[in-house]
Here is the input.
Amino acid sequence: KAGVTQTPRYLIKTRGQQVTLSCSPISGHRSVSWYQQTPGQGLQFLFEYFSETQRNKGNFPGRFSGRQFSNSRSEMNVSTLELGDSALYLCASSLGAGGNEQYFGPGTRLTVT
Amino acid sequence: ELKVEQNPLFLSMQEEKNYTIYCNYSTTSDRLYWYRQDPGKSLESLFVLLSNGAVKQEGRLMASLDTKARLSTLHITAAVHDLSATYFCAVDYSATNKLIFGTGTLLAVQP
Here is the structure.
């Protein structure tokens, strides 16, 4: 069974630009969660989608948004990029609505200059 | 505020010795996860602990959960260099797939 895939793996953007990251969950998994990892703040929850609905949102500004498609693939978008958005963005998929083990993808390393 | 605290933040280990990482969390939960992260890599799932008193072992690592004390421990037996990595505990408070992570513990095994 293929694991969680994320594209692109690396990205360099300029302040003020926007970026879209993609995540394909494990086949059959319907929940996708997104996390941001930075040296200063550690691993922080961004949002979670299940059956195309955002069920949970972390404490991030509205510049961070996401969506999930009918095939469970998910995208997250960050608009008006700031230097502080430089981070490793991880997505995780799990089987059901909650309480299931989450499997993490390889991450997208975003650098904002 | 939901908090997950790990200690120590850094652990310099000697080979063949035993060590323990502690994970405390602030609100009752019965779902706790341990992950390993190698530099520049993603998170690898190590253990899933789902009930009070749960104990799981894999090789030189053993994890346990005490929900009454809101404490999980990751015990390393006879450390070897291959165990050098950062270890995170994470709590899913309301079974909603929203994980709250600890600060991580960087393990470095010295020969």
Summary: The mean pLDDT of chain A is 95. Chain A touches chain B at residues 31, 33, 35, 42-45, 48, 50, 55-56, 58, 90, 92, 94, 97-107 (CB under 8 Å). The CA atoms of residues 86 and 111 of chain A lie 5 Å apart.
